[in-house]
Amino acid sequence: MSTAAAFSRNMALALRRRAATLGTLVLAGALLAGCNTLMTAGSTGPNASIVSQDLAAGPEEHARIVAAYGGIYHDDQLERTVARIVGRVVAASDEPDQAYRITILNAPAINAFALPGGYLYVTRGLLTLANDSAEVAAVLAHEMAHVTANHAVERQNKARNAVIVSRVVTDVLDGDSGGRLALASSQRSLASFSRQQELEADAIGVKTIGRAGYDPFAAGRFLTTMARFSNHRVSSGPTMEKAPDFLASHPSTPERVAFATRAARAFGAPGIGETDRDRYLGGIDGAIFGDDPSQGYVRDRTFIHPSLGVGFSVPDGFVIDNTSDAVLATGADGTALRFDAVALVKGADLGRYLASGWINGLDETSIKRFTVNGMPAASANASAKGWAFRIAIIQAESGATYRFIFANEAATKGLIEAASTTVSSFEQLDQRALARLKPLRIKVITARGGDTDTSLAQRMRGVDRPLSLFRALNNLEPGASIRAGTEVKIVAD
Predict the structure, then answer these.
(1) Pairing between β-strand 100-105 and β-strand 119-123 as defined by DSSP bridges
(2) Mean pLDDT lowest for which of 113-122, 143-152, 233-242, 375-384?
(3) Which of 127, 151, 215, 483 is least enclosed by beta carbons within 10 angstroms?
(4) Residue ranges per domain, the chain?
(5) Could you give the C-alpha distances from 65 to 106, 323, 389, in angstroms and in order?
(6) What is the maximum span of the chain, computed from C-alpha positions, in angstroms?
(7) Is 295 exposed, middle or buried (0-12, 13-18, 19+ CB in 10 A)?
(8) Residue range 188-197: mean pLDDT, rounded
(9) Domain 441-492 CATH (choose: 3.40.50.970, 3.10.350.10, 3.50.50.60, 3.60.40.10)
(10) Are 418 and 405 in contact (CB under 8 A)?
């Protein structure tokens, strides 16, 4: 979510839009315009530059992807770092004259993929997980291989027509007046490459980075890093359904690690090639980690939106997923939450709004008017198609109006308590409190004598299970020795 006005306008548009088929919502064209400035590399040589013209194919698809992943991440230092890697890899590829445009997507997800026409995408989440230039080169060379081997064309031909989707969980919103309620993340769904295509791309990618002078063993190393991060994420608790990311479409199986290692041995024993670790870590030092604060961000179980000046907390056991359209959360008992904005005039009768016909299965006798931290609010219960709902509306002093929708298959104790505690936690944050909030960033620090993974992880801030995350970010075994003078990544505000 960006600003109060844009948030309310986008949600109003979304509520008026009807799904073409059950389970599919397509983002409005207005959200897709104006996002076409990114890096290009290839025929221009090893130094990539910033351009805005389109290539032969894919500009509309590119715009949809950029919108679905939160826009383009702009960081001059990081862009130069990635451009240098891409230029070097392209020059060593089988098609050095092929032009590529690479976009750094402003998303914390670990992802990279390619489209026909030379479009390559990498998220800032993946870039902050990598530990050296050779690892990033391995990922991008792998994706370039999909393009040069025509895998991307084959995959695109098999992909579903719906490019940006949300799974519709229920018909709680009346179809005639407001569309349907999406309770799942809305990101681009990409068909997976086949096992054979992945192995082929692995082989081509390893060969390419080896010819470029990078460490060819970086591919297997990054697959191992991804496995550590995936294990950290899974062990953190229940998670929201996500669009396929690099961890899902490029699983770090022992077979793939072994295959990448065998391919690397064609160049020699481990230790050959350049990692460019120090320069790469300098390039990602200061990069945002996790949610972009301009869209609101999550700290532990609390969602905060600095631009809107509001925040709320969810109960223990809930996992929050901040998307561009709404804040979503799920609890261990199956309770789901959607938080968004609605377009109402200041001073509107919130109870009357609840009864205005946009809620299927509404129990009008359940409508209640009350206040939350001095702000007018109203709530109601509903049931539709086997789901039980708790819905609350709160209007801030500015007139901005926010909506909570909780759902479960039954009116469980967990549903009722989650609705009550979450809604009551909603508050407007004063400017002094907001001024103290800072985004989480990657910080590169130097280990000192006597430092261990445990002591260094204690310097992490604002993250869950810091020791596990520290090991995943730095691809470290538990208890691994860390030499004095070694640069490592931590997360801090």
Answers:
(1) parallel
(2) 233-242
(3) 483
(4) 34-159+203-242+255-284, 295-431, 441-492
(5) 11, 14, 32
(6) 75
(7) buried
(8) 55
(9) 3.10.350.10
(10) no
150: CB partners within 8 A, 6+ apart: none
CB 389, CB 382: distance < 8 Å: yes
Q: Quote the pLDDT of residue 151.
A: 52
Is the dihedral angle over the CA atoms 435, 440, 442, 447 positive or is it negative? positive
Q: How many beta carbons lie within 10 A of that of residue 438, not counting itself?
A: 12
H-helix or E-strand spanning residue 120:
strand 119-123
User: How far, CA to CA in Å, does 306 sit from each of 238, 322, 401, 403, 428?
Assistant: 27, 14, 16, 18, 10
DSSP at 31: G
User: Of 366, 373, 255, which is closest to residue 313 (Cα–Cα)?
Assistant: 373
* 107 backbone dihedrals φ, ψ, rounded to 5°: -140, 140
- Name, in order, each residue with C-beta under 8 angstroms of 262's C-beta and a sequence gap of 6 or more: none
**Rounded distance between C-alpha atoms, residue 70 and residue 41, angstroms:** 23
C-alpha dist (Å) from residue 206 to 143, 203, 343: 11, 5, 52
> CB 120: neighbour CB atoms within 10 A?
25
* Residues 110-142 pLDDT 10s: 988 877 778 889 999 999 999 999 999 999 999
Taking only the tens place, the pLDDT of each residue in 381-398 is: 999 988 999 999 999 988
Which candidate, 129, 68, 36, 487, places its Cα nearest to that of 279?
487
Q: Are 470 and 453 in contact (CB under 8 A)?
A: yes
- Please give the Cα distance from 362 to 364 (Å, whole number): 6
Cα gap 40→440, rounded to integer Å:
29
Which of 247, 222, 289 lies closest to 110, judged by CA? 247
Residue 243 pLDDT greater than 60, yes or no: no
Helix (H, G, I), strand (E, B) or coil at 175: helix
> In the chain, pLDDT over 70 holds for what percent of residues?
74
Residue 251: φ, ψ to 5°: -60, 140
pLDDT band with cut points at 50, 70 and 90 for residue 154: low
Q: What is the DSSP letter of 430?
A: P
Question: For residues 343 and 9, is the Cβ–Cβ distance under 8 A?
Answer: yes
Cα 319 to its chain centre, rounded Å, is 14
CA dist list (Å): 344 to 188, 380, 393, 478: 30, 17, 10, 53
CATH topology of domain 295-431: Protein Transport Mog1p; Chain A (3.40.1000)
Residue with tokens 């791309």: 201
**Residue 446: which pLDDT band, with cuts at 50, 70 and 90?**
very high
Q: What confidence tier does 281 reach under pLDDT thresholds 50, 70, 90?
A: very high
